[in-house]
Design brief:
By secondary structure, the chain is an alpha/beta fold. It has 3 helices and 6 strands.
């Protein structure tokens, strides 16, 4: 009996939700049909700005930018370090080392933002967290 009541209640809620979404005056389909979609050019080349250390901890930041460029090249982008703001790239990355925690095995969190060349606001933001190798590792 309880199972039948639960199924009936779910069906009524589903029906009410569908009715509301169809009758809603602010339906996104009506607005989107009249506008043209903005085409974003493909991103083939990425300039990497120096990664900033905002963790308030001493960290050797010497080759981190080079490793980031190497990883971007490895996955198929043409990537280079940005030297003094010059460079012809489709997009630019900004990254900050935000936090480092742990004693023996360190955990680091880095925030990334990807900004297209002709735009001011970042197109995509992401946070990445990784752990070191431990006592004998990095």
């Amino acid at each position: 009996m309880k199972a039948k009541f639960a199924i009936a209640a779910a069906a009524v809620l589903l029906g009410a939700g569908l009715y509301y979404s169809v009758r809603n005056a602010k339906h996104p389909g009506a607005d989107a049909a009249g506008r043209k979609a903005r085409v974003i050019p493909p991103v083939m080349s990425i300039c990497v700005t120096p990664i900033q250390n905002l963790s308030h901890k001493q960290v050797a930041m010497d080759s981190i930018d080079d490793e980031f460029v190497a990883q971007l090249n490895k996955v198929g982008f043409v990537s280079q370090k940005m030297a003094g703001g010059a460079g012809k790239c489709d997009a630019t990355t900004n990254a900050e080392l935000v936090d480092i925690t742990g004693r023996g095995r360190k955990t680091a969190r880095i925030d990334f933002r990807l900004t297209l060349t002709n735009e001011q606001a970042p197109r995509m933001s992401s946070s990445v967290e990784g752990k070191s190798g431990g006592k004998g590792g990095d």
